Structure formats: C-alpha cells, structure tokens
Amino acid sequence: MKTLIKTLHAALLSTSLLAAAGAQAADVEVLHWWTAGGEARSVAELKKMLEAKGHKWKDFAVAGGGGENAMTVLKSRVVSGNPPTAAQIKGPSIQEWGAEGVLANMNDVAKAGNWDGLLPPVVANVMKYKGNYVAVPVNVHRVNWMWANPEVFKKAGVAIPKTWDEFPAAAEKLQKAGFIPVAHGGQPWQDFTVFESVVMGVGGPAFYKKALVDLDQASLKGPTMIKALETLQMVRKYIDKDAANRDWNLATAMVINGKAAMQFMGDWAKGEFSAAGKKPGKDYVCLPAPGTANAFTFNIDSLVMFTQKSADAKKGQQDLATAVMSPEFQEVFNLNKGSIPARQGMDLAKFDDCAKQSAADFTASAKSGGLVPSIAHQMAVPAATAGAIQDVVTQFFNSHTMTPKAAADKLALAAKVR
Ligand code: BGC
C-alpha cells in the first residue's frame, strides 16, 4: 500500500513537473528592503541565479531598515489582488498571511529538495502554515551582536566591555578620548534592537523568553525588566546628539571609519564591513552584546510565496524556491549578507570567524535553551503586539522624564495588544 502511494505520488509529481516544464520564462517579482551596501550585494546574487534559469527579475525594493515600509506597501498590493511572486516576511506574520488564504503551497518543491531533512525544526516550523511549506528561508541572522572598532578602543586606552557593569567606565573613557561610544540610529526598530540585547544581557535567556516571547505580565513589569530599562537609559547617554532618524548603515559607517567605538546591531552590519573591504579580527571585532555570550536571538529572513495564477508564474516561483535552498545560493548570499546559511550541513570554509562563531553558538544555544526569537525583528510575537511594545521602548528611549518603572508598566499593558 505504502509503495503504491509512493508510486502514485511520484507519478503525480512528474506530471506536474512536466506540465511546468512546458512553461515559459516568468517575471519573478520579489519584495524586500535590502537596499544597503551588503544587502544589495546579496540580492544581486539572487537576481543572477534567477536570470541564469531564464527568468526575468523584477526588483521590488522598498527602502527602510527593519522592513516596516515594505510591509505597508505589500499589504496594499495584496489587497488590490496583485501580489508579487514572493516577499520577505518573517516569523509569526507568516501565519497571519497564511490565514488570509493568499499563500502558495510549496510542498512539492520542499519534498523534491528534502527541506525537512535540511532545515533545523526551529527554522522549518516558521516556514510552514498548517503543516505546509509556504516560505523558504534565506539565512539565519543573529541579533545580539556588538560591532567594535579595536583601533578606537586602543586609542582610548580601554578594553572592550564584556558586561553591562563594565560598560559605563569604558564609555566614559571613550568619550573623554573624543569618540562617540555608541553608534546609533534613532529609529524605533533600532531602539528596539538595542533594547532586546540589553534585556538578554541583564536577564538571561530564560527571562528574555518569559518576558518577550511568552509575554508574562509579572516579568514585563518586574524588577529584572526595570533593571534592563535602567541599563538602556545608561547606554542612551553614550549616543551622539545627531542620532535621530539616522539609518542603521550610516551608524555602522561611523564604527567603520573610527568616529564611533561600537554598535549594537544584528549581523547584517557585518555586510557593511565586508562591502567596505574590512576584515574581522583586524579592522573590526564581533562580540556578543555584553552578557549574552550563551544566547542567540535569531532572525530568519524568508521569502514567502504568494499564490500565482499562470503556469509560467508558478514555474518561476518554484525555480525561485529551489534556487534559494541550493547550497550555492545559501553560501554566496550569506557571505555578503553577514548571516549564516539556514540550510544545515553546509561547508563554512569560505565564511569568516564571526559567521563560524555564529554557527557554533546557534547549535550550542539550541541545546542550552539560549536560542530565542528576536522580538525587534518580528520573530517572537504577532506584529501588532511587537508594534505596541516597540512604541513604548521608543517613547522611553526618547523621554527624559519617564521612569524605568513607569516604562515597565507600559510594556506590560502593550503586551496585551493583539
Ligand atoms: C532584516 C535584515 C535586514 C535588516 C536591516 C532586518 O529586520 O531581517 O535582513 O538586513 O532588517 O534592514
């Protein structure tokens, strides 16, 4: 019986592949917000691969770090009945789009490519809606990084801080030596990114998970969160007065060119260092944000597939998904993007030490319980909840009157928004 089902399935699959083989080259339109230097180099590789398969790449880039602008534009396109082939959508939002009934079922491609065997369950689960693959992962980003310019620390005569307790003394010295201690862009998603690393460093993975993934009320307004908010207030003292609305990659550039000492940002920042020809361990160093060495806040970029009408468009979409999971793509895209491959079992020989550390920490933290989804990058909670919490974080970050205790109470209230 089992064999019969298998044979039938294989026959069905080959018929649909044959039907697809008759299809023509398609326009493959992909919505994303990868417009900074390293990001654009990564997208260019995807375009090249699709064109090599005979398709036409239709770039649908909507600038804006963190992707808020892109999501707004996507909604209006889908509502008007004209979705792109795929869009960069992440985490729980994939479930929300799935519930709208507008996503394509990619199980045939996934089966042919053995995705279940190649993706760790923590990644595969995010890509499925009701057990069916609707998305394909391009990478795994780590958010809890600190990027530092060692030359700046040397000039200031101070060691790079490894804990939040060491941080203020180091920052004072950097400031006295004429450097900006923390390169930051005052945009809500960047404030939120620093916040989550501080919460992780102060509270540890179990607290982070209780507060920012499970949204436990007592944790959100309790003493550990208040301590994290006090720490965030301390960090804020060390950003420059021109930070308001600065793009993240411009903040990275301040570390690259030695104006600032460090930046708290996910490893897409490494894409900027690489694009500028800088070498890790020499021109810059990557360190887990203070106190977060045994944790990994993950942020998986994925292309979510929208239902296509014509056979051509379907074929283009299947080729896109197949290309994204290929070892060639997972290597070249992530070498440029700063992330590590989502596909397991890849040879990391061409990757630098930061990527190798990320891969090792991903595996170790999965075992120790330190592997947790990033709330600032839409991996942890529904978008509406994350948005409400982000609003509070930004208000607090920009306010000089709100106390950490008041902010913690507001966080707990915001966590109830669905
Ligand atoms: C995305 C990254 C992107 C970064 C900056 C994150 O939310 O996951 O792919 O590079 O935002 O735009």
Search tags:
418 residues; alpha/beta; D-Maltodextrin-Binding Protein, domain 2; four-stranded mixed sheet; binds beta-D-glucopyranose
Describe this structure in words.
This protein has 2 domains: about 1-140 and about 300-365, 3-Layer(aba) Sandwich (D-Maltodextrin-Binding Protein, domain 2); about 140-300 and about 370-415, Periplasmic binding protein-like II (D-Maltodextrin-Binding Protein, domain 2, 3-Layer(aba) Sandwich), CATH 3.40.190.10. α2 (about 35-50) crosses α14 (about 270-275). It is α/β, with parallel strands linked by helices. The strands form 4 sheets. The chain has a 5-stranded mixed sheet. It is built from 19 helices and 14 strands. It binds beta-D-glucopyranose (BGC).
Per-chain topology:
Blueprint: H1 2-21, E1 27-32, H2 37-52, E2 56-61, H3 68-79, E3 86-88, H4 93-99, H5 107-112, H6 115-118, H7 121-124, E4 128-129, E5 132-133, E6 135-137, E7 141-142, E8 145-148, H8 150-156, H9 167-176, E9 180-182, H10 188-213, H11 217-221, H12 223-236, H13 248-256, E10 260-264, H14 268-275, E11 285-288, E12 296-299, E13 302-305, H15 311-325, H16 327-337, H17 353-368, E14 371-373, H18 383-398, H19 404-414
Helix pairs in contact: 2-14, 2-16, 10-12, 10-18, 12-19, 18-19
Bound molecules: beta-D-glucopyranose (BGC).
Beta-D-glucopyranose binds at residues 33, 39, 65-67, 141, 248, 268, 299, 301, 377.
CATH topology of the largest domain: D-Maltodextrin-Binding Protein, domain 2
The total tally of domains equals 2
- What is the end-to-end distance? 46 Å
CATH class of the largest domain: Alpha Beta
Please state roughly what percent of the residues sit in beta strands, choosing from under 5%, 5-15%, 15-25%, 25-35%, 35-45% or over 45%: 5-15%
